[in-house]
Specification:
single chain, alpha/beta, 5-stranded parallel β-sheet, 6 helices, 5 strands, about 15% strand
Length: about 200
């Protein structure tokens, strides 16, 4: 037992150090926007209230995509999000938000099946393949960008970039970062069915 404890301590130190390094990498990658012009942007969904009001986190994502569109960086925006019981589809509310702010309805593509990052990436990759597109900018909170880019690449998208929403530190930030740490490795090991 006395020989096992030092080994366990060393293992825990190595795992903790690895986690901290990866959390730093996720944060740096997520904050390092590469928003050169692309064929489209994809905005990953978030909570929408029963009355169709988009959450503050989602507003910040949509505002970032709106900025890219207004700057001429992307001609098309995919809005992707599923549906909580009793609420409208996230994608529908997201599209409405952008259209109300001047984006033409035909420049916004709805993905109502985007229940998670994997499904959003699969839809986006399929849409891009069908329309002969090569480059995409993933728009989300900084901590979500690395996993989103990973999923898009694994589905075969040739050029993947990221643009993070305005950063607002929330009480749930540590949880969000830890979730992304686990999520990244889960997505790394996932099977990417490219139909």
């Amino acid at each position: 037992m006395s020989r096992v404890l030092p080994w366990l301590r060393r293992l825990m130190l190595v795992l903790t150090a690895w986690a901290l390094v990866h959390l730093a990498a996720i944060s740096v990658d997520g904050c390092s926007d590469d928003d050169a012009p692309a064929d489209l942007a994809v905005v990953l969904g978030n909570h929408v209230a029963a009355d169709g009001t988009v959450s503050g986190r989602l507003v910040r994502r949509l505002d970032r995509a709106l900025e890219l569109y207004q700057q001429g960086k992307v001609p098309t925006i995919i809005v992707s999000g599923g549906r909580d019981p009793g609420s409208p589809f996230e994608a529908e509310a997201m599209k409405q938000y952008l259209v109300e702010r001047g984006v033409p309805a035909d420049a916004v593509v709805e993905d109502r099946g985007g229940e998670n990052t994997y499904l959003t990436a699969r839809f986006t990759a399929e849409y891009m393949q069908q329309h002969g597109l090569r480059s995409v900018i993933a728009v989300s909170q900084y901590y979500h960008i690395s996993r989103s880019k990973l999923a898009l690449r694994r589905f075969g998208v040739a050029e993947v970039r990221g643009a993070h929403a305005v950063m607002v530190i929330e009480p749930r930030e540590p949880w969000s970062l830890l979730r992304e740490l686990v999520g990244y490795y889960t997505y790394l090991l996932k099977d990417y069915d490219q139909r």
